[in-house]
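Running log. JK asked me to keep both predictions on one page so they can be read side by side. First protein, sequence followed by its tokens:
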Amino acid sequence: MNSKQLKILKYVFENPIRGDVLWSDIENLLIALGASLSEGNGSRVRIILNGTYAVFHRPHPRKEIDKGALKSVRRFLIEAGVKDAKI
């Protein structure tokens, strides 16, 4: 994982929840963690990481992920065994 991906991972676990994280950065982080991403219908993205499955919607028209979705990404990462930025 590179330094930008570590920074995004830190942002995911930060409190209060950030509103300025780009979805493309989240996708890159998930890929770096070993996740498998596949396209669903419309803006859906299916993600499998360490046997944990989730479906997220790409944000539109904005590029930033909203706070509720970022909280869901955090929950997904915890369920997949990623605890915080200290991997």
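And the second, directly underneath as requested:
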Amino acid sequence: MKMPSFPHKVTKQGVSVTIGRVEKDGQNFFRVLFREQGKRKQAWRSTFEAAKRAADDAIEATLTGDASALKLNASDRHAYLRAMEFIAPLNIALDHAAREYAEIRIMLAGKATPAEVCRDWLKRNAVALPCITVADAVEQLKSQSLADGKSKSRRLQLTTTLGAFAIAFNCEVSSITPSLISGYLSEMQSKERTRRNHRDIIGFFNRWLVMRGFLVKGTDWLEGVQNYTARKLGEITNYTADEMRRLIAAADARILPMIVIGGFAGLRHAEIARLDWSDIYLDEGFIEVKAQNAKTDTRRIVPIKDNLKQFLLPQAKESGKVITVANTFKLLAEAIEVSKIKPKQNALRHTYISARVAESGDVARVADEAGNSPQVIRSNYLKRIRPAAAAEWFSIKPQAKGAS
């Protein structure tokens, strides 16, 4: 018999006995270590073959319930033998199996049985998922966004955010966990609003991966991840009606539609820049903000107030870009400087929303028109302008030529 390495372990049906070798005066002796009645025992043999037989005898005595090895009553002996029969195909010790089972039951805390959890896991993972890296998945999403006609700004947002994400996670998408996402966001050297934007896009990417079959249904990378605030505190500013009149009077005719549509319809600067005259229905009284032109990628309808209609009628066309100049920010800054009013970030849109809420009292309706959530309208715009000031805002009309 070929001599094995020592210590040598003999295992049968989950019961193990160890054989060691000791050299004394140039002769080998073999020690058999086993347990008898819960106590550690040892037996010495002069040959490995004899030690192996002793180990087999000790194991057999344990498995058959020999009183010299293990004292059990009839019921306990029967339960022990059945347990050994159950785990025999697994080649695992009975105490290890019992410990593992206990840990599982503790984790489940009575919410389900181990078998139920296993069946659910097997059901959700029955189909082998395709392996794909984060970088490759990002490229596929970018291609689909282009094919779906997503706006240029939305595609740029996805490219910038997910490009950085792919660099940070040079791995397969299936290996990403919520804890990794949480660490990634917390380490960003950015303002909370930026982290919120990144979190939202990562969530969108996660849902897209599930939809495409790259992640198991129900996978949520954002589970337990901090939900950063999206509110911009202290940034809601308004113009007065007098300031708006002065701004209109000082504006270059090429950007006048941008000013009045922003102030009297509440469209965002980028949305107005993408607006076509065919999207403005003066006779029917509404502006259509197409999904590909909207910041939220959602189509919406915005009413045209009477005063806005009077501003747009002289310049209206059947089609073509409403704003044809590229340097709109420069021209707007010049108009603000000439009118001698204080520059205010997004004040045209903010004033429209504030006035519209004051005028209508319908938060949900204004949220739909503005492309915001009702929560944002309530927290940022409610009661910023009184109804009388709102009425004055929407009464601003073009001045007749020669009027002072």
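Observation for JK regarding the second prediction: The radius of gyration is 38 Å.
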